[in-house]
Write a structure and sequence with these properties.
4-stranded antiparallel β-sheet, single chain, mainly beta, 7-stranded mixed beta barrel, 1 helix, 2% helix
């Protein structure tokens, strides 16, 4: 196997900052956008085919299953309140899944990959591991843990399946680790910090090409994005510097073309997608028909009422045993209901539930924990992260103030 250069085949701009990217079973290019919290779908030349809103912030990873259902990870930093959210191809919210409460790891997912059996492998940089979620949404355990030894991770940001293996970008350790996805056995490790061949400065994303070569996207400096090529076992094949900065993620289609999100260089610069192909590849023929028609129904179904805390404040009562807030539920055909969790730096400060009729506002109460009472004894107001874990409608995570 020889490694050659990649050359630009197309580029297009997005109307918001693009984060993750994936290829659908119909060949369409699916992109999450962080500035406006939505998913956009394009054909392979950049023609917009449709969009749908997500109802939560920080969409960092995306994968599309064989049925065309879109799985989007919600990154939430160190408060471990995030989940993976699953949508129909038209944008209807189907369900959310993640690690169970009380699991011995923080969960704030980044990149992900779907095994043919339906198992989701989710890179979890905050927990320094890879989480496994079964097709029914139940937790399947974790791979790795914090550290720099074999099988350990430091801020892993992406995963890929191919060649019968699971590849993990171990970002903080500047390396790639290869595992058996069934047994979790470590098969290979390669890479180290540096600018040389086979070295990484800030590896962001990984995927496997149709011919089996492993591609690693590296931010090799503030204004440089480098596409590295390796054999399945980690032997270095070549690298291409891309006309793109602040590179975030990449995906490879069935023909071997690579799509990268980031800040595309001038001319025609801005946030967008860059498509590159191997220099010896034939040009992509124009599509005979769009891979997927634009949705004819509203992107977000009317049943997906969204809950928000308005104003963005939680007020503790005088005893400091509980606190209250006002929650607004957007118009729809169902109510907004679920659980409330308030956290700061991984510590639970309050828990409760909420139920609000569609198109209305209502007060919700949470019970404060001992750490919350200690914080409020010392300060009148603290910044916290509040999560509305919806059982009906759409919830989300937001930063808010807990006051007394």
């Amino acid at each position: 196997m020889q490694g050659g250069q990649y050359v630009e085949a197309a580029r297009w701009l997005t109307d918001g900052r693009p984060n993750a990217i994936a290829i659908g079973p119909d060949g369409s290019v699916v992109v999450t956008q962080a500035t406006d919290d939505k998913v956009s779908r394009f054909d392979q030349r950049g023609t917009l085919l449709g969009t749908f809103a997500l109802g939560f912030g920080y969409p960092y990873g995306v994968a599309v299953d064989p049925a065309g259902q879109v799985h989007v990870t919600q990154y939430s930093g160190f408060d471990s309140t995030a989940q993976v959210h699953m949508y129909s191809s038209a944008g209807g919210h189907l369900r959310s899944y993640g690690v169970p409460e009380g699991a011995s790891t923080q969960f704030s997912p980044w990149g992900m990959a779907l095994h043919p059996d339906g198992t989701a492998f989710v890179a979890n940089p905050v927990g320094a591991d890879v989480q496994l979620v079964r097709p029914d949404g139940s937790w399947g355990g974790r791979l790795g843990g914090p550290g720099s030894g074999p099988g350990q991770f430091d801020g892993p940001r992406d995963v890929a399946l191919g060649n019968g293996s699971l590849y993990v970008v171990d970002t903080g350790n500047r390396r790639v680790q290869r595992f058996d996805p069934t047994t979790g056995e470590l098969q290979a490790i390669w890479g180290q910090s540096g600018y040389g061949e086979g070295q990484f400065l800030n590896p962001q994303s990984i995927d496997v090409a149709p011919d089996g070569r492993v591609l690693v996207l590296d931010r090799n400096g503030p204004d440089a994005a480098v596409l590295n090529q390796f054999t399945a076992a980690g032997d270095f094949l070549g690298r291409t510097t891309l006309p793109l900065s602040q590179a975030f993620a990449m995906a490879v289609d069935a023909a071997g073309a690579v799509y990268v999100t980031g800040l595309v260089s001038y001319p025609s610069g801005g946030w967008g997608v860059l498509k590159v192909v191997p220099s010896d590849a034939s040009p992509t023929p124009p599509p005979t028909s769009p891979p997927m028609p634009p949705p004819t129904s509203p992107p977000m179904p009317p049943t997906a009422s969204k809950a928000k805390v308005m104003p963005k404040r939680i007020d503790a009562v005088k005893s400091r045993q509980r606190a209250t807030m006002r929650i607004a539920c957007s118009a729809g055909t169902t109510r907004c209901a679920g659980k409330v969790k308030v956290q700061q730096n991984g510590k639970i400060l309050a828990r409760g539930t909420y139920t609000v009729a569609a198109g209305r506002k209502a007060k919700a109460a949470v019970r404060l924990t001992a750490p919350a009472r200690r914080l409020l004894s010392a300060r009148k107001s603290v910044k916290v992260r509040l999560r509305l874990q919806a059982t009906t409608g759409v919830g989300g995570t937001t930063r808010i103030r807990l006051t007394r």
